[in-house]
Amino acid sequence: MKKHNFSAGPCILPQEVLAQASEAVKDFNGSGLSLIEISHRSKDFVEVMEKARSLVLELLGLEGKGYQALFLQGGASMEFLMIAYNLLETKAGYVNTGTWSDKAIKEAKLFGEVVEVASSKAEKFNFVPQGYGIPDGLDYLHITSNNTIFGTQTKNFPKSYTNLICDMSSDIFSRQLDFSQFDLIYAGAQKNMGPAGTTLVVIKEDILGKVSRQIPSMLDYKVHIGKDSMFNTPSVFAVYVSMLTLDWLKNMGGIDAIEKINEKKAQLLYSEIDLSPVFEGYARKDDRSLMNATFSLTEDKLKGTFEKMLQEAGINGLNGHRSVGGYRASMYNALSLESVGVLVDVMSEMERKA
Ligand SMILES: *Cc1c(COP(=O)(O)O)cnc(C)c1O
Question: Which one of 106, 177, 192, 287 has the fewest beta carbons within 10 angstroms of its own beta carbon?
């Protein structure tokens, strides 16, 4: 039976990418060897890394603009500290819009002063603050573009702010933005790009080299740039699958094309949530995420029936994060409009049964 995978992460990947990846695990490029048993310094793998890095800059429209793309390890969580290690000299600003921002703040505090310039914590992160002032003298301002757990998304970024850093783990490559407004973008691969095991960091080179502290090699962006993202053995499989996914995205028309589909999927689901008396949304409407839709049943007693229906329809991964409860439908790039249609059909059937 076909499964409809709404998992928040690790998440759904395109079927053809999975097919190519499983072939490469057995026989990579007809070499008679597996992708995961050859040297990362071999010509075939170096080409994979270079292609992945250049696809990133191409899709984001950042070629020739002084940016470098790196595939690092340690997850987005490692970037929480690496960013501060490399860029925080005295104080940095953070917009606190959810659990992940909160964790980024905690790490940054180990390196300098952190100013929480705005926060939605008091409202259990159900909205994204706007129109806040940004104090002078910050080394950088850190924003989370999409709050995976709460289902909110930043629609407006501070205009022409220099040293803007963005955690785009759960919405990179899903919507068109002027990516050159950011000086550093990072994303764990496993939400919208590939399997777990690698983290994408896109960095404007000229922001580096300004802090006075010594930086250990593995945590120093300059070291990774100097070694073309191969300072140590990279996560070869995760980089390869990310490369395939980026190529898939490019062939379907890039970010502009996927954004239209993502908007359709989100509209379909949110209009069901809004029309149905048995469901209610969690996030404020203006701040709703195109990637993660959070909602709950208005009556707890419907839970058993609803969850049985989900299972019968082959819907997977719909449970909300433990800190929010309810349901969360993650509609990453590889999830089809058809799968959202199946979910919406189950939801309207639930309404009839209630
Ligand atoms: C999942 C997630 C993270 C953490 O990613 P890891 O790769 O598990 O460290 C950070 N930020 C956001 C927005 C996320 O969705």
Answer: 106
pTM, entire model: 0.98
Angle at 289 between CA 165 and CA 271, to 5 degrees: 165
Q: Which residues are catalytic?
A: 100, 167, 191
Looking at 29-33, 110-114, 158-162, 323-327, which range is the least confident one? 158-162
Residue that is written with structure tokens 């919406």 in the block = 344
Which helix (H) or strand (E) covers residue 166, if one does?
Answer: strand 164-167
For the record, the structure tokens of 13 come out as 């990947």
Domain with residues 254-353, CATH architecture: Alpha-Beta Complex (3.90)
Q: Which CATH architecture has domain 15-252?
A: 3-Layer(aba) Sandwich (3.40)
Q: Is 73 near ligand 1, meaning CB less than 6 Å away?
A: no
What are the respective helix, strand and coil percentages of the chain, to the nearest 5?
Answer: 40, 15, 40
Tell me if 79 CB under 6 Å of ligand 1. Answer: no
CA distances from 341 to 10, 312, 330, 347 (A): 22, 15, 14, 10
Nearest protein CA to atom 14 of ligand 1, as residue: 169
Residue whose Cα lies nearest atom 2 of ligand 1: it is 169
Query: Do residues 49 and 71 make contact, with C-beta atoms less than 8 angstroms apart?
Result: yes
Atom number, ligand 1, closest to the C-alpha of residue 98: 13
- Give residue 160's pLDDT: 79
Which residue's CA lies nearest to atom 8 of ligand 1? Answer: 75
Q: Is the CB of 144 under 6 A from ligand 1?
A: yes
The full set of domain ranges for the chain reads 15-252, 254-353
